[in-house]
Every structure is written in C-alpha cells, then in structure tokens.
Amino acid sequence: MRLGIRKTFKILAPGNSLRRRVAYSLAIARLILVPVIFLAVYYLFEMGWIVDRIVNTDAPAATHAQEASIEMLEARRAERNYLLLRDPSYLAANRQSVEKAQEILGQIQDLEPEDAGDTSKGLASLQLYEQRFAAAVSAVGEPGQADGDRVRAVVRAYENDLDSLLRGSRAKSRAQLIDQLRTRVESFDSQISETAQEANPGLAHLTGDLQASSAMVLQVLATLQTENWKRVEADHREARRLMRQAEWALSIVSALTLIFSIWVSLFLPRQVVKPLISLREAVDHAAEGRGLTDFEIQGKGEVAELARSVQRLIARLQQSQTGAA
Question: Residue 61 sits in a domain of what CATH number?
Fold first, then answer.
C-alpha cells in the first residue's frame, strides 16, 4: 500500500440528536413569525374597536341629535300653526314631534353615557316646553276657526314675496337663493306668531317663553351633535395614526424577522450538513488511498455515531491493507 500523508478530519456534531435539531430548526422558523402575527392581530383589534365606536356609537348619536333637532323644528311649526288656525291636527302633530324628540334623546343617552348631562338638560327643556305649550293652549281656549282674513293676508304677502324672489333667481347663485329662502321662511314664521298674538294679546309672553324653551332644546341638541361629530373626527384621526404606526411597526419587524430567518436558514443547516461533508471528505481520502485517515469526533447523536462507525470501518480497511503489504 502506498502510504501518504496522515490526515485528521474533525467531525463536530453538537447536540444530541439530528431529529431534535431539525425539529428545533422548524420550531424556530415558525417562532420568528410570531411577532409579525402578534402585531397584525393587535392593530387589527385596535382598528376594529375604533371603527365599531364610530359606526355604532359616535356617528349614530350625532345623527340622532340632528333628527331630534328636526323633530323640534316640526313641533315649533305645529305650535305656531295651532295658535294661528286652532286646528286640533296641529296639536297632535306637536305632541307627536315632542315625544319623538324625547325618545331620540333617550337613545342618545343610552349610546353615549358621557352625554348624560346634556341629554338630561335637553329632556328637562322639552318638559318645560310641553308645560308652556299646554299653558298657551289653555290661553287660546277651545279649538276653532281662526280669523280667516288675517291668515289670508299673511299668506298672500308671503306668496308675493316668494314670487318676487323667484323672478330674480336667475341672477343669483344657488347658495344665495337658499339663504334668502331660509330668511323668508323665518320671516313667515314670525308673521304667523305676530298674527296669533294680535288675535289673542295674552299670548305675547307665552310665545316668548315657548321660543326660549325651544331654543334651549335646540341649543342642547346642537351641542350634542357637535360633540359627537368631534368624537368621530377624533376617532378617524386615531385610526389614521394607528394605520401609520402599524405600517412602520410591521415593516421594521418584518425586516428584522426576514434577516433573522435568513440567518437561521443558513446557520442551522450548516450545523447539520458540515459534519456530513467532513465525513464524506474523510471517506474519499481513505478510498483514494492518499494516506492514513484519522478522526476527531465531538458530539453525540446520529451523525456522531455514523462517524464512529465509518472510523472503525476505515481503520479495519487500513489494517488489512497494511497486513497484506
């Protein structure tokens, strides 16, 4: 046998078992995804809570406040018409609108416990308005027919005013036309109130009290509407902030996770493959007869046991070849 250079091969197989190391590698590969999943779930729940508050609490409360304001305006219109025309249908319409406004305020109170003070104030103002309207109804006496001449005069003047406004509407913008129409409507309501007071002078102070109490209700409803829309805007800003924060956090954590996963994918397989490569080189060296082959084996497990078996086999082959020579 041609003897060459003695060469020592190091077989380093840290750990106990190859199967365990593979299992550990797979477990680590899964664990590195936990921060990304955790952050995604966290921001998803935060966004869901904000959207739920906007959709189910803040926006409905603001809409209810607007609906209550409309009902209060309808109650005021029915009140003026009744004081002028003495028609019982307007009395029923006023009562129905007030009841709807009270119901809506109760819904707002259930949705937004933080607005309990304003809603309680609005309900108290509505109750005061009911009491004052009942006093006005008692002051005008039994329902009946109002002075037709006065009513026709007010309506005729209102129609003439609207006709003159519409004739010149082409030279005005839509916004200007709407503002002037709103002014005309308010003027018409004032004329109706003045006509009712002229028919019954005792209503002068009662109508003033009615206007004050209804204005208080409308002010409370406007405050509720404004505050709830502010909450909607604040929740919207918070949602946008969370979105930006989620984008940055997930980007950074994903980048770190990617780097760590690449390192794990390179490091752990090397720990498994490197001793096998060394073992293959040792077998090739012995098979080619380049010289004596020595092993330095460290570790336990399947790879280390395989290396020891190969070491014994090569040692026997070298002994047999030496004896034959």
Answer: 1.20.120.1730
